[in-house]
Structure formats: structure tokens, C-alpha cells
Amino acid sequence: MVFFGHAGIALGAAVVLNGLFARPIENEPAKSDEPSSRLAAPWRSAEAWVVSLGQRFDLRLLLLGSIVSDIVDKPAGRLFYGTFGCRLFCHSLMFLLIVALAGLYLYLSRHKNWLLVLAFGIFTHLALDEMWLDTKTFLWPAYGFSFPTVEWNNWVEGILHELFTSPKVYVPELLGLVVIVWIAWLLVHRGKVYAFIRHGQI
After folding, report:
1. Of the candidates 105, 120, 14, 112, which has an alpha carbon nearest to the alpha carbon of residue 67?
2. Dihedral sign, Cα of residue 76, residue 80, residue 86, residue 90
3. Residue 167: pLDDT band with limits 50, 70, 90
4. Where are the domains positioned within the chain?
5. Quick check: 21 pLDDT over 90?
6. Cis before residue 29, ω within 30 degrees of 0?
């Protein structure tokens, strides 16, 4: 999976969880009983979920968390193993636990949630990569301190090939792209592009 799958699905999952379990945002306009309004209700609800999420959390950190494992591990794999195909420490459960526990401490002691948001993004990345299937990396260092190496010299060509031939790659990428385009449209429509860039809010 490449950028859109990880980033878009992390955003989409956060939107759904926020909509299902968080309290509604304050000052939400009352819904009309007109037929046209009832037809638009699902769309307005989905938009309200996104806006509510963007008011509670810095969405830039969620996006960063969803791809930080690759941002760190791919160059490190190239540096130490000669290939971008490696999954190293940032794809391990240990990395997720360190960030999540630090985030929990920060939230309980200072009521700051930014590390927890980052941890959620990391969690979605590991889940989408199905890291539990690579136990040596996922449970590092339980099986030793080395990481499995991947001989993938033509990494870019391999990714492009999977992107057009493997449903496990192109379906999440398309789904993630739809989510990102939709949220980008909301930012433009609501005039919140600058607010998102500056504060990660909608």
C-alpha cells in the first residue's frame, strides 16, 4: 500500500469512529423537516462528523502517523539493507506501544492529545500492512534484534506493478483517494484550507 491508502483510510476510520462515539459538536444547525433536507441528511451527518473530528484533533498529525512508519523505515532500509522494501522498527508493535503510552501519559498529565492522534495513525498503518503476518518484525525484539531483509532492488517498479495488478493494493488506494478528495473538497467548500495548513483543523 502506498500514500493514499494509508492516509485516506486512517482519516476515514477516524471520521467514522468520531461520528459513532463522540458527542455531537455544539452549535450544529437544526435540520429542517423539508423533503430535500431529509434527502441531504446523510451527507450533512457525514460532513458534521468530519468537521467535529477536525475541531477535536490536529488532522495533520493523523496523516503523519498514518505514513510515518514508511517515512522512517524505507530510507533506513535503503541505508542499512540496500533496499526500500524493508519494514523495520517503526513497523513494530514496540514502536506503537511507545508512542501510545507516551501519548496516554501526556494526555493524563497535560490534557494534550497530539501523541495519541499520532499513535492512532501508526495503528492504522500497521493494521493495513497486516504486520501480524510478519511476526519477526511486528514482535521485535522477541525473535532477536535483527530485522528480516527484503531483496527488492526495483522497488519503484514493484510498487507500480502491484498498484495496477493487485486488488490488495489498488482497492485501498482508490478508497483512500476518494476520502482524501472528499475532505479536500470540504476544506475548499468551507474556506478552511488555511486553517488546516496552519492548525490541522476544519
Report:
1. 120
2. negative
3. confident
4. 3-15+52-199
5. no
6. no
Q: Residue 82 — left, alpha, or beta (φ > 0 → left; ψ -120 to 50 → alpha)?
A: left
Spell 38-53 as b/e; 16+ CB within 10 A means b.
eeeeeeeeebbbbbbb
Angle of helix 114-128 versus helix 59-81 axis, rounded to 10: 50
- Helix, strand or coil, per DSSP, at residue 143: coil
Which pLDDT belongs to residue 158?
Answer: 72
DSSP-H helix ranges across 87-166: 93-110, 114-128, 135-138, 155-165
**Joined grid coordinates for residue 148:** 528480516
Decide: 200 and 58 in contact? Cβ < 8 Å: yes
Chain centroid to CA 36: how far? 34
Quote the crossing angle between the two packed helices 35-56 and 167-189, to the nearest 10°: 100
Residues 117-127: tens digit of each pLDDT:
999 999 999 99
How far apart CA 75 and CA 59 sit, in angstroms, is 25
Nine cell digits for residue 157 = 517498479
**pTM of the predicted structure, to 2 decimals:** 0.86
Q: What is the pLDDT of residues 170-192, one digit of tens each?
A: 999 999 999 999 999 999 998 99
Q: If 0-12 CB within 10 Å is exposed, 13-18 middle and 19+ buried, where does residue 7 land?
A: buried
Name the DSSP class of 92: S
Is the pLDDT assigned to residue 26 strictly greater than 60?
no
Alpha-carbon distance of 118 to 68, in angstroms, equals: 9
